[in-house]
Amino acid sequence: MPQLRLVAADQVAGAVHVHDPQEGRPIASLTARHLSEHAGFLRLHGGRVAFVDDLAGALVVLDPFAGEGRPAVPVTVPVAVPGEHLAADPTGRFLAVSTGCGRSPEPWSDLLTVVDLAAAPQPRAVRVRTRTGEPGVAVLGPADDPLLVVRERMPGALAVHRLTGLLAAGPGCPAVEPSARLPLPDDGHGDAADPATGRVFTATEDGVAVAVRDGQSLTAGPSLTWDGDGDGDGDGRRGGRGYFLRLDPARRTLWSTVRGGPPEPDQWPLWTNHAWWHRIDEGRTGRLDLGPGLVFRLALSRTRAAFTRIHPSGDELVLVDRDTTGPHGPRVRARVPLPPMDGAPREGCTPWDGVQRRAVAASPAADLVAVSRGGHGEIHLYDASCGAVLRTVTTPTPLDEGGHLALVAKDDGAEGDTIGR
Fold first, then answer.
1. In what order do the strands lie in the sheet containing 199-204?
2. Which of 42, 207, 307, 404 could in theory staple to 9 by disulfide, Cβ–Cβ 3.0 to 4.6 A?
């Protein structure tokens, strides 16, 4: 197994912890760092990890392999906050940070930050004004002429900017207009970008909208349906929608969780959940049942896609084949009970306000999955090939609201997914 690092952010306590997951021992901690949980971690080349510090108003690049007791922070760059989404171009040189709601119930900021990590004599960051909303971002190559794509809502569109033009903007946060705009449904939420083809994917109620780079613009492609054959049982494979997209760059596959059931948040124990996958090059789509409750983000290990499912009857880690090439698609290979959380979501209440949750992380280089136990300062490590419990890592802070995790190897290819998770 390659050398791994487990990075755990406690965004409530304002700390980032680095552990050796193979030995379970702590390596280092950063204090006074408040990760933007919505923007998440963005993997960069060489095992580096980028995130937005929402309190400091900074993009932080962390090298978790730097040394015992002292994780190196080679770069910090001022950016506009609250961080909504974080993305990089395929080389990891150019980054973009969009701003969202933060603690406001409504979008209020129209600021967007673009960053050139390789600028001399120091990294360069420029802030511009676009449009208020809850924008997603993606950066498409090639490196000598990257395009920034901003996903807008209500009215929905994919707004296209030449990134080098944004970097040339002056001080004072000038307003900018896109060079092109492609219509999109108003309810876009969840994005993925495929560096190999220049395609951008956006999750909407109607399905996954597809756009492809065409010079300095985007052209719409055929949309993808949330329906699929998946497990072949003929039950519950239609309807619902995904709110999260993730690219598996090695297997050229998109993954999501399709949610159905009653729309009311306090009815979350009745929500249905399916693992949805789409083979990008073959055009094949499928889905399989994960069970009721709250399922959202997922992680990709060497052999499995890992999901956590929260439910009043008991939480579990669901491990699904990452290989989607078989005649029937992937299968659920293990359902592993998770230890209960004090302060877990309750029936009749929303599953995300003032409750504990779970984060999940994996590396494509290893058969290892990490799952947090929010509020308890614990991260449980599992053998993804069979679901066996390996060890528990204890963090110095409680990981309230589940914290946020990244499991990192230096050359695992995870940087091929260029949007923060």
1. 191-194, 199-204, 207-214, 217-224
2. 404
